[in-house]
Amino acid sequence: MDHNFTGDPLAMSGYWSPQTSAANFCEIDYEVSHYIAEFINTFSNLAFVWQAVVTLPPHLRGNGREFKVWNWPVEALSLLLVGLGSAAFHMTLLHETQIVDESGMYAITGALDYTLWSYGLSDIGKTALGTLIGGLVSGVVGWNFMGTHDGKADNAIHLALFVGLLTALWPRALYLIKKQSSIRKQAGDLKGRDEVAGKLMREFRLGVLYFFVGFGLWLFEGQFCYGLRNIRGFTGMPLGWVLELHGWWHILTAMGAGRFVWTARELTASTRSAEGEKQTNGHVVQK
């Protein structure tokens, strides 16, 4: 499937031209601004910045505390990196900013994998897991930074690592939800339905739904780009911007990532009290 739609009328006259990235999506380059290669794909990344803020733990929100990014947990920082890195990539379509974009994607999925899979491990186990994830990410980032195809990053290797890190999240999250529910039942804390597990499962499923809908739009745009361009040309702007489907991928993926961050934090909350978060003992903290 093509994800390098080059040859747009203004592609070589933009501020950041020529394109050196391996990917160039369906949005017509420099159609809106001389300084922004893909306008909607750039600004739709604000959804990740928004999710980085709204998913902060309660003690880091309000009275301007959310602006103290040096106090943010790694998941929030990773969401911020995704948003800013992806915006820089779509604004410039440069090889270097593509690597920053990809690094943010590895950061958020790797951070969530570490949070979930390190839960309950010994210090040695946590070190080994962190080394494994860090080594994989560093290796792929270094490989793609150097360039493999005529000086451009290898998109297949990038997707393989990202999908692998993402896929590892789901079975671990489901396991912890069920395990913690079983522990609460054995302890006699439940009277009827486990509302905690129900809330966690709903948030987890919502995150999965957001991701798959966004991914479906991403694939659809890659397959039917030129038809979508014809429709956008017929409807004109700003209505045509609704059909910039890669922008919707950003928004929906950001919302899904926010749900995964919240779920992972609740599942591992008992290990975070030393960092200043409220001890929940497996109970959901309502927003």
From TrEMBL:
Superkingdom of origin:
Eukaryota
Annotated Gene Ontology cellular components are:
endoplasmic reticulum membrane
Return the protein name: Alkaline phytoceramidase
**Subcellular location as annotated:** Membrane
* Membrane topology of the entry: Multi-pass membrane protein
Q: Which organism is it from?
A: Cyphellophora europaea (strain CBS 101466)
Q: Where does Zn(2+) bind?
A: H90, H246, H250
Q: Which residues cross the membrane?
A: 69-91, 103-121, 128-145, 157-177, 208-229, 241-262
Provide the taxonomic classification: Eukaryota, Fungi, Dikarya, Ascomycota, Pezizomycotina
Instruction: Give the family, as the similarity comment puts it.
Output: Belongs to the alkaline ceramidase family.
Name the coenzymes or cofactors required.
Zn(2+)
Q: Name one GO biological process term.
A: ceramide catabolic process
